[in-house]
Amino acid sequence: MVNFLSHTTADVSYHSKSIGDLEWNCDGTYLASIGSDKTIKIGQLTDSTLSSRPLHSIMTSNMENVCWHPTDSGRLSFCGDEKSVEVWDVRAQKAAAKINCGGNLIHNAWSPNGNYMAVGSRFDHLFIIDMRQFSIITKHKFPYEVNEFAWTVNSDHILATTGGEPGVGAVDVVSFQNNKLEVVSSVTAHSSNCMSIAMDRSYRKMAVGSIDFLVSLWDLDDLICHHSFSMESEVRDMSYSGDGKFIAAVSEDPVLAICDADTGDFVCKINSRYKANSLSWHPKRNLLAVSYDDRSNSPSYYKLIHFPNE
Q1: HEC string for 118-157
Q2: Among 56, 61, 63, 214, which residue has the least CB neighbours within 10 Å?
C-alpha cells in the first residue's frame, strides 16, 4: 500500500527557465522535459532519482509538447509554434525526421501500435502522420476549439477534448478508418471547455480536465463518466499511476491533488509555493515528476516526488 503522507522530494536542475511539459518514456528509464530556455532535456533514471546531468540536451525553439513512442523506449517527438513535428532518438545528435504541419502546434500523440501520430494545431486542425513514412496522410478541420486528445487502444479512434457551444465542454469521438478522419459522436463532459485528457496504461480509464475546475473520470468500456473531483481552479494537467489506481492533477492553484482513480476520493494533497505546469507518473514506480513555475532566487523548475510503500 502506498504511503502518500511520507513522500520525499528531490529537485532537478536541468533547465534555466520554466518547463512547459514533461513525460516519462514507456519503461520509465528516461524523462523528457521542454523548457522555455529553448532546450529539451532527457534525464536518465538511476535508482529513484535522475542523473545529475541530462543524458541528452536538444536545442530548439518554441516547443511545448513532448510525447514518447508507446513501445520504443528511445524514440520521442515534440511540437510547438515551429512548423514541424520533430522525431528524435535519444542516442542521435540530429532529428530522425521533421514533418511540416504548418506551425502553431499544441499537441502530439503516438497511436498505441506506433504506426501513426496525431498532431493538433491552434487553428483546430488535426493531422495524422504515418510514422513509417514520416508523411501526413489526412487532416480534419474542426469548426470549434479542439485541445488535447488521446488514441484508443486499437489505434482506430481518437478522443478529443473540445470547447464548442458556450457552456459546453465535450469529448469528440473521431474515427480513423482507411486513412480518413470522421467525427462520429460528441459526448458532453463539462459545463465549460475541456482542455486536458489522460488515459491509464490499460486504455480502460480516462480523465478529462476542464476550466470549470473539475476532473471527470470515465470508463472507456461504456464511455460513461462515473465520478469526478473538484480542483481549486482551472485544470492544467493530469496523469495516472502506472497501475491505474491513482490519478494526480494540477491546476492554476499551487496544489497537487492525488485521488483514487475509481472513486474520485482524495488521498493526498501537496501544497507548494508555486503553481505546477505539468506532471507525469512513472510507469512502474510510485514516482511523480512535476514541473513548477518557480520564481524564487534559486529556482528548481521540476521535482521528483517519491511515495514509499507502507
Answers
A1: EEEECCCEEEEEECCCCEEEEEEECCCEEEEEEECCCCCE
A2: 61
